[in-house]
Please model this.
Amino acid sequence: MQVNFQLNGEPVEVDIEPRLHLADCLREMLRLTGTHLGCEHGVCGACTVIVDGAAVRSCLLLAVQAEGSSVVTVEGLSTDEALTPLQAAFRKHHALQCGFCTPGMLMTAHALLTEEPDADADRIRSVLSGNLCRCTGYIPIVEAVLEARAAYRKSDKP
Amino acid sequence: MKPAPFDYRAPATLQEAIDLLRTEPEAVLIAGGQSLMPVLAFRLASPSLVVDLRRVAGLGDIAIDDGGVRLGARVRWRDIDDDPRLQTAHPLLREAIAHVAHYQIRNRGTVGGSLAHADPAAELPGIAVTCDAEITLVGAAGARTIGASEFFTGPMSTARRPDEIITELNLPSWPKNRRWAFQEFAQRQGDFALAGVALFYDADQGGRVRNAHVGIIGASDRPQRLTAVETLLNGHAVGEGLFREAAAAATRAVDPPEDLHADAAYRRGLVATLVARGLRAAQRRGA
Model:
């Protein structure tokens, strides 16, 4: 089936089987491998992307359901020149070790702070409860997201 | 695992969707897909056709009037969170829905999907049964409305016919001074509850309970009301003694399932604790 959507601001068209979920479509068909797949049934959060402004699990969305949508992946966050303030805060706070969960963490935190730049630590913890990390123990991740809030308050799009 | 192959259609109208269900007996419906996608990934279901409701108009509205709260089948958890009217129009619904899954799932999971999936531990079916809600379905034979307690027939089983589509959940109106609580216990935030309790009552002038509704999730094969507990509460003044009696009655009223997370005795104890906590919380809320 032909499917058209916006991917990181650019129109894309793919010819896919209906059973393909969005994460596999992004990784296998469109070769954007920044989106990681952990559990593939909606538990781990590693595959989180932003669809029409909302953070969603891309393993729980058929790619054909993305027709006409705007999809943002971790590749769409930063420019070639620099990390975003959120990414820089992750580096500063050592909010990643192996990095497997990091794209999902970043996309979840980006969606949250875009909508709620004043989210407090409890809200951040609650939202990130849908993303599993097996390395860091979460505290540095929460610290990084807390610090990144300032950048989201200044403008709509950091 | 990956889903088995299937065809996909996204009809523009409810009638087209019903026609597809009627002509393709192995078809399933998808809206948010937050329950169906894992089912497909594990190949617990291998439908020939997936019918997507995303283009069907009129299923995504929240309507509030004297008749109560009407939730369209494609209303997402996130839409319920974002609607400030529901703080007064149905605080119990809002509180219960706050326990559903995680942020990303809440952005896609829907009312109709939760009702159709009918997980015994799911919050919305519990609220629907506790509140005597009605579910509207439309199929080849037309529309019908069915009470929530008749709709849920067992674990992951409902009275929905294969050609029917859930269009709406109607929760009866919510009086202003109603006392209520929702309590559940899960091993991690966002997990399915090992047990949960939704309850409300109206207090008369003398502080006595009227119109008690006590419903449970996770501790039976489907959401159910604990009528023995309700009968025990009605007509009596609230207080710690009554709460303890109610908790004991709840223990006797449930027949919980066993699984690797908890045995029946544990779940029975959990229901008692949650009933007592809920009644205390409801009392505080009215004070």
Summary: The mean pLDDT of chain A is 95.
